[in-house]
Amino acid sequence: MIQYYIGIDVGGTKIAYGLFNNERLLVKTWRQPASKEAECVPFFDDLISQVQQILEGLDLSPSQLGGVGVGMPSYIDQNQGRIIKTANLNKIRDFDARSYLQDRLQTRVVLGNDANAAALAEFYHGAGRGLQHMIYCPISTGCSSAIIINGKLFQGAYGWAGESSHGIITPDDNLLCGCGNRGCYMSHISGSMIVKRIQARIAQGETTSMLDLVDGNPDKITAEHLLVAARAGDNLALQAVDHMAFYLGLWLFNLYQTLNIPVFVFGGGLINFGDMLFDKAKEIFNQYENTGYPVEFRFAKLGADTGTIGAMELLFHT
Description:
This protein has helices spanning 40-57, 97-105, 114-125, 186-189, 191-203, 223-231, 235-259, 275-288, 306-317, and strands at residues 4-10, 14-20, 26-33, 65-72, 74-77, 82-86, 109-113, 134-138, 146-149, 152-154, 263-267, 296-299. It is an alpha/beta fold.
């Protein structure tokens, strides 16, 4: 009997599902929006329902499902399969998600941090192929890192070794991150948090062409509007990108100093900012890195399917 696997990539704004055959090749994908207000039980019941609908829609029996891998933007206790907290889905916390899913789907379930999942995808299938060590950094609604050392994913004692973007850099900052702290790297770098900083400056009376893109309503501003305005030379937008680049460069330098891994692979929606963001971040990085040894910045190669491929790979590499 042919076995299939499902990879589920849960993001701050969407959930993607991928069906893979027994050769671990992607067969079909589905997407749906993610609700930031969803509670644990209805959230995971919906995931279960979607998996069942996928099987029924393709006339597959539950016995043909070899496993489900789920990548979550969460702190996950890998030993227990328990979600501790989720930065961009604040109500998904303190929940035994693995046992809940396994009991209802009657198949093996592996949960992992979404950055770790995407790192596995890029390491085995994308920009990290052939490397021994790699740090993967998704930068989108949130940001994070995942660490591969000697060809293996490093997760630490409990499972959240890569949550380095929640390290504190400006503890007196006013902006609260979903991690529960103020002044972490993510609060300066991610798409959702830089928008909050822009909105605060608009509330203080600063002007920007971003308002023209959203009919004058600052609550509708997104990172996409920031990119459009920055490309057009808007002053506030350019300052915001410089702000992101500065803290991105510091974050990466501190990661490099800690781990001495010389290849960073970037994924997520903010890679669309390209040189405007990442060249400036590399300049900041180089201001502090003075050994002269090479350090590479690469972009992910797998595109929109990175998360689902990585979630599937969790079944084989964790």
